[in-house]
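Box 3.1 A note on notation
Throughout this textbook, protein chains are presented in two layers. The first layer is the amino acid sequence; the second is a C-alpha coordinate string describing backbone geometry. Keep the layers aligned when reading.
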Amino acid sequence: MFARIVTFTCKPGQAKQVATKLGQNALPFLKAQHGFLDLVVLVSTTDPNEVIGQSFWTSREDAGRYNLELYPRIRDSVQDGLASTPVVETYDVDTSTAHRIAAGKIAA
Protein backbone atom coordinates (compact mmCIF):
# COMPACT_ATOMS: atom_id res chain seq x y z
CA MET A 1 0.00 0.00 0.00
CA PHE A 2 1.14 3.54 -0.75
CA ALA A 3 0.17 6.91 0.77
CA ARG A 4 0.19 10.50 -0.42
CA ILE A 5 0.18 13.14 2.30
CA VAL A 6 -0.63 16.67 1.14
CA THR A 7 -0.30 19.62 3.52
CA PHE A 8 -2.43 22.63 2.65
CA THR A 9 -1.65 25.97 4.27
CA CYS A 10 -4.86 27.93 4.04
CA LYS A 11 -5.68 31.60 4.15
CA PRO A 12 -6.97 32.68 7.59
CA GLY A 13 -10.49 31.37 8.18
CA GLN A 14 -10.45 29.10 5.11
CA ALA A 15 -9.33 25.72 6.53
CA LYS A 16 -12.79 24.26 7.08
CA GLN A 17 -13.95 25.37 3.62
CA VAL A 18 -10.85 23.86 2.00
CA ALA A 19 -11.39 20.59 3.87
CA THR A 20 -15.05 20.48 2.85
CA LYS A 21 -14.19 21.16 -0.80
CA LEU A 22 -11.55 18.42 -0.76
CA GLY A 23 -14.09 15.92 0.51
CA GLN A 24 -16.88 17.00 -1.80
CA ASN A 25 -14.84 17.70 -4.94
CA ALA A 26 -12.10 15.10 -4.72
CA LEU A 27 -13.84 12.01 -3.38
CA PRO A 28 -16.10 11.28 -6.37
CA PHE A 29 -13.10 11.49 -8.72
CA LEU A 30 -10.83 9.52 -6.42
CA LYS A 31 -13.33 6.68 -6.15
CA ALA A 32 -13.14 6.29 -9.93
CA GLN A 33 -9.33 6.10 -9.94
CA HIS A 34 -7.68 2.72 -10.38
CA GLY A 35 -5.99 1.65 -7.14
CA PHE A 36 -7.64 4.22 -4.86
CA LEU A 37 -8.35 2.87 -1.38
CA ASP A 38 -9.23 5.71 0.98
CA LEU A 39 -9.13 9.45 1.65
CA VAL A 40 -8.73 11.08 5.05
CA VAL A 41 -8.96 14.88 5.37
CA LEU A 42 -7.73 16.37 8.65
CA VAL A 43 -8.16 19.91 9.96
CA SER A 44 -5.46 20.82 12.48
CA THR A 45 -6.47 21.55 16.05
CA THR A 46 -3.18 23.38 16.72
CA ASP A 47 -2.78 25.40 13.50
CA PRO A 48 -6.09 26.92 12.37
CA ASN A 49 -4.76 27.33 8.83
CA GLU A 50 -3.57 23.77 8.17
CA VAL A 51 -5.39 20.94 6.42
CA ILE A 52 -3.88 17.53 5.67
CA GLY A 53 -5.15 15.26 2.93
CA GLN A 54 -4.11 11.62 3.08
CA SER A 55 -4.91 9.31 0.23
CA PHE A 56 -4.13 5.60 0.18
CA TRP A 57 -3.39 3.58 -2.94
CA THR A 58 -2.70 -0.02 -3.81
CA SER A 59 0.58 0.93 -5.49
CA ARG A 60 3.05 3.73 -6.11
CA GLU A 61 2.14 3.59 -9.81
CA ASP A 62 -1.57 4.18 -9.12
CA ALA A 63 -0.74 7.16 -6.89
CA GLY A 64 1.66 8.49 -9.51
CA ARG A 65 -0.98 8.32 -12.22
CA TYR A 66 -3.40 10.23 -9.98
CA ASN A 67 -0.72 12.82 -9.24
CA LEU A 68 -0.19 13.50 -12.96
CA GLU A 69 -3.74 13.20 -14.25
CA LEU A 70 -6.16 14.36 -11.55
CA TYR A 71 -4.34 16.03 -8.65
CA PRO A 72 -3.78 19.34 -10.49
CA ARG A 73 -7.54 19.69 -10.96
CA ILE A 74 -8.23 18.89 -7.29
CA ARG A 75 -5.56 21.36 -6.16
CA ASP A 76 -7.00 24.04 -8.43
CA SER A 77 -10.49 23.50 -6.96
CA VAL A 78 -9.25 24.72 -3.54
CA GLN A 79 -6.65 27.23 -4.77
CA ASP A 80 -8.73 30.27 -3.79
CA GLY A 81 -8.53 29.22 -0.11
CA LEU A 82 -4.78 28.53 -0.05
CA ALA A 83 -2.01 30.78 1.22
CA SER A 84 0.76 28.80 -0.49
CA THR A 85 1.48 25.85 -2.75
CA PRO A 86 0.50 22.52 -1.13
CA VAL A 87 3.35 20.24 -0.05
CA VAL A 88 3.10 16.65 -1.31
CA GLU A 89 4.94 13.79 0.38
CA THR A 90 4.72 10.08 -0.41
CA TYR A 91 5.18 7.01 1.75
CA ASP A 92 5.11 3.25 1.61
CA VAL A 93 2.55 2.10 4.19
CA ASP A 94 4.17 -0.23 6.69
CA THR A 95 1.25 -0.86 9.06
CA SER A 96 -2.47 -0.06 8.90
CA THR A 97 -5.33 -0.57 11.33
CA ALA A 98 -8.02 1.17 9.25
CA HIS A 99 -10.47 -1.70 9.77
CA ARG A 100 -10.32 -1.08 13.52
CA ILE A 101 -10.99 2.65 13.10
CA ALA A 102 -14.07 1.96 10.98
CA ALA A 103 -15.37 -0.61 13.46
CA GLY A 104 -14.88 1.83 16.35
CA LYS A 105 -16.86 4.52 14.55
CA ILE A 106 -19.76 2.14 13.98
CA ALA A 107 -19.75 1.03 17.62
CA ALA A 108 -19.78 4.59 18.98
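The helical segments are 15-31, 60-69, 71-78, 98-107. The longest strand covers residues 2-9.
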